[in-house]
Design brief:
- By secondary structure, the chain is mainly β.
- Helix content is about 0%, strand content about 50%.
- The protein contains no helices and 11 strands.
- It has strands at about 5, 10-15, 20-25, 35-40, 45-50, 55-60, 65-70, 75-80, 90-95, 110, 115-120.
- Strands 2, 4, 5, 6, 9, 10 and 11 form a 7-stranded mixed beta sheet that branches. Strands 1-3-8-7 form a 4-stranded antiparallel beta sheet, with no helix packed on it.
- Strand 7 (about 65-70) and strand 8 (about 75-80) form a beta hairpin.
């Protein structure tokens, strides 16, 4: 049963913007923590932004000032501005029943989406 579905990925030129969405279903809908992770080509998955149900928001240093995370009900959003080539990768949505934005909702049990591809060209 798919509980997290990402959308909004695509290809843009450096300096451009994209808005990603993640729709939560089932048990994931009421998660106390939702987050975005990124897997760049040839690298491991890293957390980039997380938000708790109490409104606490945490960003990785690499995206501070450029990416904005928000949530409306069971849908998670991420506005990405001034995209750089190094932002290229597969972006995954994560959900966790505990308020763990500081570790990007990976304290477990974590539910993962299938990912959406973002490609930034120079």
């Amino acid at each position: 049963q798919v509980q997290l579905v990402e959308s909004g990925g695509g290809s843009v030129q450096a300096g451009g913007s994209l808005r990603l969405s993640c729709a939560a279903y089932g048990d994931a809908y009421n998660s106390d923590c939702m987050a975005w992770h990124r897997r760049a080509p040839g690298k491991g998955r890293e957390g980039v932004a997380g938000i708790n149900s109490d409104g606490t928001i945490v960003y990785a240093d690499s995206v501070k000032g450029r990416f904005t995370i928000s949530r409306a009900g069971g849908t998670l959003y991420r506005q990405m501005n001034n995209l750089q080539v190094e932002d290229t990768g597969t972006y995954y949505c994560a959900a966790d029943p505990f308020r763990e934005a500081h570790i990007f909702c990976t304290g477990g049990p974590t539910t993962w989406g299938l990912g959406t591809q973002v490609t930034v060209a120079s």
